[in-house]
Amino acid sequence: DRLDTDVLFGQNGGCKTLLVLSAGVTSEQMLQSPDNKIQPDFYTNQISDFLTLKTAAV
């Protein structure tokens, strides 16, 4: 849930990243800010959204 640690770590490791909007990043506006240089590959409001999507893809 943090751009400057979790997402950056994943990107530096060559992984796709998923950001859950929460304590670290609380809105899409902050995520889309031109000042923000770190962008996740995917983001969602809650982890259960990702789990539903993953189940549908299998």
Structure description:
With 58 residues, the protein is mainly alpha-helical. The protein has one domain: Rossmann fold, CATH 3.40.50.1000. It is 43% helix and 10% strand. The chain has helices at 3-12, 28-31, 47-57; strands spanning 18-20, 42-44. Strands 1-2 form a two-stranded parallel sheet. Helix 2 (28-31) links the parallel strand 1 and strand 2. It is globular, with a radius of gyration of 12 Å. The model has no long low-confidence stretch (mean pLDDT 80).
Descriptors:
58 residues, mainly alpha, Rossmann fold, two-stranded parallel ribbon, 3 helices, 2 strands, 43% helix, 10% strand, globular
Poorly predicted tracts of residues = none
Helix content: 40-55%
* Sheet with most strands: 2 strands, parallel
Beta-strand level of the residues, as a percent range? 5-15%
Domain unit count: 1
Short description:
With 58 residues, the chain is mainly alpha-helical. The chain has helices spanning 3-12, 28-31, 47-57, and strands spanning 18-20, 42-44. The chain has one domain: HAD superfamily/HAD-like (Rossmann fold, 3-Layer(aba) Sandwich), CATH 3.40.50.
Compile the SSE list and pairings:
Elements: H1 3-12, E1 18-20, H2 28-31, E2 42-44, H3 47-57
Parallel strand pairs: 1-2
InterPro entries: HAD-like_sf, HAD_sf
Protein name: Sucrose phosphatase-like domain-containing protein
Pfam family, one: Hydrolase_like
